[in-house]
């Protein structure tokens, strides 16, 4: 009950009048899909701008097992902020940072799939530290 199906949809079994809660969940899912689609479109545009050297440098940092979680998050942060300097000023800075972090995560994981868990957890840590308030604000602006 309430679990995601393999196709990404919620289970259809509702018990004990949970319909209102389920409807709110569906509304939130729609909001997240809209935001995700917008971020993906921006990501596709920015993906072409990221040089292989930046990705290769990040891969080398992530392969270094001696780096602490904080150090590796700092490396990701520096890469994202360095790339963000080249973003047109008409794009919201926080949105650019979020999209760049996600695009870099994808590029590192595609380059070295064994780093998926480490880059993903580092990116989540980075987003939580630097962009949490922005994400909350973005979701609440789309809400009811």
UniProtKB/TrEMBL annotation:
Where, subcellularly, is it found? Cytoplasm; Mitochondrion outer membrane
Give the keywords, sorted. Answer: Apoptosis, Cytoplasm, Membrane, Mitochondrion, Mitochondrion outer membrane
Task: Assign the protein's first listed, main location to one coarse class.
Answer: cytoplasm
**A GO cellular component annotation in the UniProt record:** cytosol
Task: Give any Pfam family that matches.
Answer: BID
Alphabetized PANTHER family for the sequence: BH3-INTERACTING DOMAIN DEATH AGONIST (PTHR35447)
The protein here is known as BH3-interacting domain death agonist
Instruction: Name the source organism.
Output: Nothoprocta pentlandii
Q: What lineage does the source organism belong to?
A: Eukaryota, Metazoa, Chordata, Craniata, Vertebrata
């Amino acid at each position: 009950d309430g679990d995601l199906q393999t196709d990404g949809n919620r289970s259809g079994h509702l018990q004990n009048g949970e319909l209102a809660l389920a409807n709110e969940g569906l509304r939130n899912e729609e909001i997240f899909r809209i935001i995700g689609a917008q971020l993906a479109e921006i990501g596709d545009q920015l993906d072409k701008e990221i040089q292989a050297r930046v990705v290769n440098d990040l891969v080398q940092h992530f392969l270094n097992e001696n780096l602490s979680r904080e150090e590796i998050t700092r490396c990701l942060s520096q890469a994202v902020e360095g790339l963000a300097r080249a973003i047109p000023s008409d794009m919201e800075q926080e949105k650019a940072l979020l999209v760049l972090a996600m695009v870099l995560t994808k590029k590192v994981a595609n380059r070295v799939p064994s780093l998926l868990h480490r880059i993903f957890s580092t990116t989540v840590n980075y987003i939580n530290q630097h962009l949490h308030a922005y994400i909350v604000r973005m979701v609440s602006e789309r809400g009811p």
